[in-house]
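Let us work through a complete example step by step.
Step 1: write down the sequence.
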Amino acid sequence: MQARVGVAAATISVTLAGLAGPASAASAESGQTAAVMVDAGSVAGVSTTEPPFRSGGTGARSATVAAGWLGMCYNLPDPANSRGGGGWCDGNGPDARYYGRVTCSNGSNYYGPERWAGDRRGSYGICPSGTSRKSWSVYGYYV
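Step 2: predict the structure and record it as C-alpha cells.
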C-alpha cells in the first residue's frame, strides 16, 4: 500500500508491506520494523526494512501495541565532529527508537548508537580519520 501525505509544504511517501491486518491493527510479521528514513536533502520516507544490526524474526504473526511514539526525525551533521552525521527523532521510547548513519568519502557507512525516540543527544556515525562525510541520515523505527 502506498500513501502520499502533505505535511507543511512537504510530501511524505509511506509504504507498508507485510501487514497481517488493517493498518490500524499494528500487526506485522515478527521481526519487521517500520523505519522512517530522513536523508540529507530529503524530508522523510517510511519502509518496513530492518536496521542493519537487527536479526530477522521467526515469521510468526503477532499483534502488539508499541510502548511509545515516534515523532519527526531531524537529519543533522554532528555538531561535535566535522566527520560525523546522523540526527535525532522526537517521540517517546522504549519501543520507538532511532539511530544515525553517515556515508563517508571511502564509500562506507558508519552507524551511531541506537537511542529511544525523544533522546535529543542524537545518534551520529563518525567517518574515520582521513575521510570526510558525504551524506547522513537518521532512521526512526518501532521494535
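Step 3: interpret the result. The CA atoms of residues 77 and 85 lie 4 Å apart.
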